[in-house]
Structures are given as structure tokens and as C-alpha cells.
Amino acid sequence: MAGHALADVRGAVGRARAVQAAIAAADGPEQIEAAIAAALDAGNPSGARQNPLF
């Protein structure tokens, strides 16, 4: 399903490593959320989003 977390082109392990690296590379606590969002977007080149169920 496009936009689903498991549809990440890097796979689950690659996605987790990318998020971990993004957190480690963030300049400060205020930058962590943006860094995580950028890391997640990098694994979803189509840009599709899945709407939450609730």
C-alpha cells in the first residue's frame, strides 16, 4: 500500500537506521522532529500518504 510505513524502499531495517541517523545528526532537540520527517520522506519517493484510521 503506497504511503504505508512498510512500503519504505529501504525496508524496515533501513527505515529504522535512517531515522536513528537523522536523530543523531540533528543539531538540537528542536530539530529532531524535522530530521525524522525528512528521513521518513526519503524512503517514500512517491510522496503518497496513508490516512490514519482513527
Overall 3D form: globular
Low-confidence stretches: none
DSSP helix fraction: 40-55%
Distance between the termini: 18 Å
Summarize, please.
By secondary structure, the chain is an all-alpha fold. It is built from 2 helices and no strands. The protein starts with 10 loop residues before the first helix and ends in a 12-residue tail after the last helix.
How would you summarize the topology of this molecule?
Blueprint: H1 11-25, H2 32-42
Helix pairs in contact: 1-2
Molecular structure report:
By secondary structure, the chain is mainly alpha-helical. The chain is 48% helix and 0% strand. It is built from 2 helices and no strands. It has helices at 11-25, 32-42. Helix 1 packs antiparallel against helix 2 (32-42). The longest helix has 15 residues, at 11-25.
List keywords for this structure.
single chain, 54 residues, mainly alpha, 2 helices, globular
